[in-house]
Each structure stands twice: as structure tokens, then as C-alpha cells.
Specification:
The chain has helices at residues 13-16, 41-44, 46-56, 73-80, 108-112, 138-149, 168-173, 177-195, 202-212, 250-265, 283-295, and strands at residues 33-39, 61-67, 88-93, 105-106, 119-122, 154-158, 198-200, 232-235, 238-241. It has 297 residues and is of the alpha/beta class. It has a single domain (24-295), classed as 3-Layer(aba) Sandwich (Rossmann fold), CATH 3.40.50. The strands form two sheets. Strands 4-3-2-1-5-6-7 form a seven-stranded mixed β-sheet, sandwiched between helices.
Length: 297
């Protein structure tokens, strides 16, 4: 499968934003980049490592997550249309002195005006990411609401990732890891192109990492992939994962944080020296992740 980066907005667009690429030239005293993530479990994990990577590179970051597990674009719009409810868990990592006193629960209209966001990110729920029909009309309506309430913000689409082979939904859907990625890559690319948005290529970064090692899935180990548990148990003569098989593990959190930092700040993250504990004994893998993230920025 060809792993291609797709960009539909010109590189000069960053210059018009007056600051999203500030980190490459401006001093660390620059105001923090303010990022709001409207997402689910595939975005709240950005909070795990991105703030540490940004801090290591002296890039001030105010990062806020709106979380509902498995939340699709359709459900996001249902929530927008019920503004009196507060269904999202709101979590943030702020470096600014004037951090907004956000509530622990909120809704999209409320949070879009809670701070002056530089960036707002959206994504499809992973189970629908490979099905183009699930994106609309909900994606169009959500983008319109963001532009209405946060017109100064640049909207990015996070390209999510494909599951490990142990996820039973792949067999149910009649696809495998590679075909899931190919389908979601095409779906996100089409969605981003139609709306003139740029992507954060998390899913492609995962695929490049898997191919580069390569990640080999055996009967009872998962010590290489950035997704899923490494803990297996034997049941009825078969070894099966004990726990999660599709969310990021600690390695994945680091890769995702690198991809987001490189993309949103437009920086070379190979200059970072920060290594999480999970990769302390594997610096070459941390270096590979930095290289992939920088190539995709």
C-alpha cells in the first residue's frame, strides 16, 4: 500500500494565520498556541505526551479536550443542537497564566467561546472512520458551527488510525488492518479536500511506524505496536489480548504527541530530546517516531 501524505491547503496558508508557525522563528515568550479538541478517546490521549514534547521544545501550549468515548460526528451535532446539556468531559493542560476556569463538563457551543482558540480539531469516531457516508452532513454542520462561534480558529482534521489484528470488528466488517487504513485515509482525504481543511496525519504515522520496524503480530505478544495491550492470557488453548486492542498504548501516546506538535507548530521534532519511560531502553524507536512525525508535518 502506498503511504502518501495528502495536503489540500497551500503551505502559504499558515502565514495568513499570524502565529501557528511561530515556534520555528519566534522566542518562547510568544503567547501559547490555544488548541481545542472536539473528539473522543482518539483525541483525549493527545494530553498524555504532547504537552511534554512541546515543553521540551519550549513551545507554549494551551491544550483542551472535549471527550465522549466513541463520539461520532453525528453525535457531536446532536449535542450542538442540545446546548442546554453538558455531555463532554472537559480536560486541559495550560501553560498560560490566565488559564480559563473551564467547567469539568461542557458542550460544544459553550467551549467554542470559552477561550480564543487558535486551533480547533475534529475527527470521525474510529469505527466509522473508514466509511465515507458517516461523515456527512454532520461534518459540514459541525464545521459551520465552529466557524460561527470561533471564526479566528483554524480547523484541523485528525486522521485516526487502524486497529490491531486482534480487534474482532475487522473480521465482522470483512476488512483487515491495511484495508481499514486505506479506506479511512481516503475518507479523511475526501472530507478534508471538500472543506478546505488540513489534516493531522496520525493514522499515516502509525502505518509508517508499523511498516518500518516492522511490527510482527504473533500468537501471544504485542510488544511493538503503538496500539493495544502487551498483556495476553490463555483461554481454551488460545492466547488472546487481555484488555484494549485498538487504543494507543504509551508508545502510541508519544508518537501521536510528536505528530501533533510537528504539525500544529510546524517544527522539526527530531530536535527534541525528551523520551518517555516506555522507550527509555529503545531510543532508536523514539528517534524513528520523531523522524516520521517531522516528515508528515
Amino acid at each position: 500500500m502506498k503511504l502518501s501524505r495528502r495536503t489540500f491547503v497551500s503551505a502559504s496558508a499558515l502565514a495568513l494565520l499570524g502565529g501557528l508557525a511561530f515556534a520555528a522563528e519566534e522566542p518562547a515568550s510568544q503567547k501559547p498556541l490555544k488548541v481545542l479538541m472536539i473528539g473522543n478517546s482518539f483525541s483525549i490521549c493527545v494530553l498524555q505526551e504532547m504537552p511534554k514534547i512541546a515543553a521540551d521544545l519550549k513551545l507554549p501550549l494551551d491544550l483542551c479536550s472535549m471527550y465522549i468515548g466513541g463520539c461520532s460526528l453525528e453525535r457531536h451535532m446532536k449535542n450542538v443542537n442540545a446546548p442546554e446539556t453538558t455531555p463532554y468531559k472537559v480536560t486541559w493542560s495550560y501553560v498560560s497564566d490566565d488559564a480559563a476556569a473551564f467547567p469539568k463538563q461542557g458542550n460544544i457551543p459553550q467551549m467554542l467561546v470559552a477561550d480564543k482558540w487558535d486551533v480547533v480539531t475534529i475527527q470521525q469516531a474510529s469505527h466509522g472512520s473508514w466509511q465515507p457516508a458517516t461523515y456527512e452532513p454532520f461534518g459540514t454542520d459541525l464545521i459551520a458551527k465552529i466557524k460561527e462561534l470561533a471564526p479566528q480558529a483554524k480547523i484541523y482534521v485528525q486522521q485516526t488510525w487502524s486497529y490491531t489484528p486482534w480487534d474482532k470488528r475487522l473480521a465482522k466488517w470483512g476488512i483487515n488492518q491495511d484495508t481499514m487504513f486505506g479506506a479511512l485515509e481516503a475518507a479523511y482525504a475526501d472530507f478534508a479536500q471538500r472543506h478546505g481543511l488540513e489534516q493531522i496525519y496520525t493514522g499515516e504515522a502509525v502505518q509508517r511506524y508499523r511498516k518500518a520496524l516492522p511490527v510482527v503480530y504473533t500468537e501471544k505478544t504485542n510488544d511493538d505496536d503503538v496500539c493495544g495491550t502487551s498483556v495476553f492470557e490463555e483461554k481454551d488453548g488460545r492466547w488472546t489480548p487481555k484488555g484494549d486492542v485498538f487504543h494507543f498504548n504509551a508508545r502510541g501516546h508519544f508518537l501521536q504527541g510528536l505528530v501533533w506538535t510537528a504539525r500544529l507548530f510546524n517544527v522539526d521534532v527530531t530536535k527534541s530530546t525528551y523520551v518517555p519511560k516506555c522507550l527509555a531502553q529503545q531510543p532508536e524507536r523514539a528517534a524513528l517516531m520523531r523522524k516520521i512525525a517531522t516528515e508528515l508535518k
